[in-house]
Amino acid sequence: MFAPDLKAAVEKSRIIAVLVVDEAADAVPLAQALLAGGVQIMELTLRTEAALDALRRIVAEVPEMTAGVGTILTPDQVRAAHTAGAAFGVAPGVNPRVLAAAREVGLSFAPGVATPSDIEQALEFECRLLKFFPAEPAGGLPYLKSMAAPYAHLELRYVPLGGISPANLSAYVGDSLIAAVGGSWLAPRELIAAKD
What's the pTM value of the predicted model, to 2 decimals? Predict the structure, then answer.
């Protein structure tokens, strides 16, 4: 469910900026600022009306940024993200209808997992890159290592989000289970709105 070249780009980047954009006009300067800071992959969350318009602007004007869409909760959102040019999609959980829609349109997709049952449901859709969410509240890296152990032979990789910060970043990125870390601290909503 995740294109091999895109998965390799995620693993190389080691970090994904997770963003809430309130005004589409902020999208291009934001993408350019992230690139200037060495961040090449971003996830625009569908928590605002501006998210898909922001994505379209980035795809058109900052093609060197790999931009995906997060907080995808419905099949219609999958299709809208794909149509808008998303490189990938992310969900907080494992919804079979959402995963089926992603497979149908050919959108690389990382569902959110927090339990072994979640992992097994994701495996039904051949997902090998999984969002671990909410990472810290669920038990952090020690919990993930325990949960992931029965599936080690499948070489699954995880992108933890939720409670990740500069204080615990190095522990996560240093572990072989981790493809990349997602973080909202890179560009908080307030700084984006302030055009900082």
Answer: 0.96
